[in-house]
Amino acid sequence: MRRFRDLLNLTGREREGLVQAAKMAVAAVGAWLVAREFYEPQSFIAPYAAVFMIGGTVFRSLKDAALQVFTVTLGVVLAFGVVMLVPYGPAALGVAVFVGMVIGAWHRLGSSGIWVGVVALLMIAYGTADDPSYLVSRVGESVLGAVIGVVVNVLVFPPMRLREGDQAVETAAGEIVDLLRRIASGLREEGWDLDGAREWHRESVALDRAVREADDAIGRGRESTWYNPRVLLRGRRPEPGNAVLNTLYDIAEQARHLTKVLVASADPDDTAPLTGPAFDRPFADVLDELATEIDRIRENPSDCDVDHDALRETLRRVRELRSALARQAPWPDHLPPEDWSAHAALVLAAERIVLALLNT
Asked: Which helix or strand (DSSP H or E) is residue 222 part of?
């Protein structure tokens, strides 16, 4: 009973893993049984080909099926050609493996390329490479297994991975929100220092990786809908678009610039001046407001409805903050305050974050 409850509590990814394993078993048995009827009792190529069609999306299984049949065909043709040209068995085996691996390294064959040399090796090792009818049968087995694998993958719970894109966007947006709020909290404390700024910068550098992972996940989710019959039955659900990804990329870049300025400002060996508490506290409020708007993306990645009025007000406040600092008087020798360069860089980064959100 406990094991049954554990199965019910599996995550979506774990359940998908079990389903995929079951589909592989069904495809392997089905391909083996059918191949026994048409080819030979000890067929191995058909179930092998069937299993390798199950692992990915419907589109990926169709692509893999074509590659699988192509590589097996190349392997048997190579084996036949080599034994015709090289009569000595060991030499023929070495030549076939060498040439097969060179051909298999072609990037368009991907991970299936290794099977060119492996299939050639097996055909020569079995002593059947000079039998055209046997070689044709092995290609037929490959086609049969690939077809059965694709059919099982298409008809039995074909993978749909749109939720992965949502989760990855939620994660990336959440990391940005957390970082901005930590920076805001730190800026309100007069004791923030170089070590803290460096930690913020390390986290900002990691944001780019999180956004790239979201981009990849959305791409995988979009691919999972291609030729997928579940889309016809359930309809296509909304998914995060390019606008959301571009916004996250822009925000991550500006967060990185912002933290670099704070590191330089806190570093006594750097020429950048200190920002100062008179700037830090109002700027911290701006960062909190930006975090609140970015949090809307995390809450609804597929239809992020940011508050444009609030963002325009934030933009006005950022620019007013810059203007107020510029109006500070008197200026020694009619020059801007010594901390103006750091202020300007931080305000510019905040402005660009606002504009990125407004363009979402």
From this structure: helix 194-223
> CB burial class (10 A; 0-12, 13-18, 19+) of residue 208?
middle
- Give CATH for domain 162-358: 1.20.58
337 vs 327: CA distance, rounded Å: 10
DSSP track, 127-139: T-TT-HHHHHHHH
Where in the chain are the domains? Answer: 2-155, 162-358
Q: Which of 184-193, 255-264, 278-287, 307-316 has the highest mean pLDDT?
A: 255-264
**Cβ atoms of residues 316 and 342 within 8 Å:** no
Max CA distance (Å), the chain: 97
C-alpha 155 chain-centroid distance? 26
pTM of structure: 0.71
| CA dist., res. 95 & res. 186, Å (int) | 66
Cα–Cα distance for residue pair 108/117, rounded to 1 Å:
16
Helix (H) or strand (E) holding 29: helix 12-38
Q: What is the pLDDT of residues 336-350, one digit of tens each?
A: 445 567 778 888 898
Q: What is the mean pLDDT of residues 145-151?
A: 90
Which DSSP string corresponds to 146-185? HHHHHHHHHHS-----HHHHHHHHHHHHHHHHHHHHHHHH
